[in-house]
Structures are given as C-alpha cells and as structure tokens.
Specification:
mainly alpha; Arc Repressor Mutant, subunit A; two-stranded antiparallel sheet; 2 strands; globular
Amino acid sequence: MITVDDASAVPVFEQIRSALSDQIRSGELGDGQRLPSIRQLAGDLRVAAGTVARAYTELEAAGLIESSRTHGTRVRADQVLDDDLRRAAARFIQTARRSSTGLADAVGLIRAEWARTS
C-alpha cells in the first residue's frame, strides 16, 4: 500500500518511487507482478498522472520495473534483496529501536558508514 503525505517536504513522485522500490526490494511485490496503470494509481492516490509517470520512469531507469504496451508495467525478475542482507537490516533496526534512534538518524548512520568504508 502506498500513502502520500502532502505535508512532507519529500516530493510526491519520490514518495511513490520510494514506496514501490521498498516493496519490490522486500519481496512484497514479486517478480513479474503487474503494477497498476499510471492513470489507475494516480486516481487511487489522488495525484496527477505525470507524478506517477515520473516515479515509474525512475523505477524503470533503476532496473526495478519494465513497461510494455502489451504486458503493462511489471516488476523485473530478481529484484528482491538477499535474505542475509534483509536479516542484517532487521537486526540493525532492532538495535536502533532499543537505543531510541529515529529513522532519519539510523539512515544517516548507514550513509555515513557507507561513505567511510567505500
């Protein structure tokens, strides 16, 4: 399920892109699963069709989805993250929550460590 927060500083297309990306990477949206049409999702979320089109374009550029006139928009195969990585993420989340670390700080920590070890 995708929700849009109109009060957020994050652009709506990015909220949609991020939500779908997360659902694909987690396996919630499986290989070959068909996504709603741009018009359908825009209507469901009460946003402009161009907003959904931009999110879909970015997901396609990232290799997460593929679109065709005959088959619609579908999740590309093999986009689910590795089980070991997902388990490590779950352990990190549990540790962060135990130490009362918020999401923004936890993500910031990951970014900082990623940059430091690259």
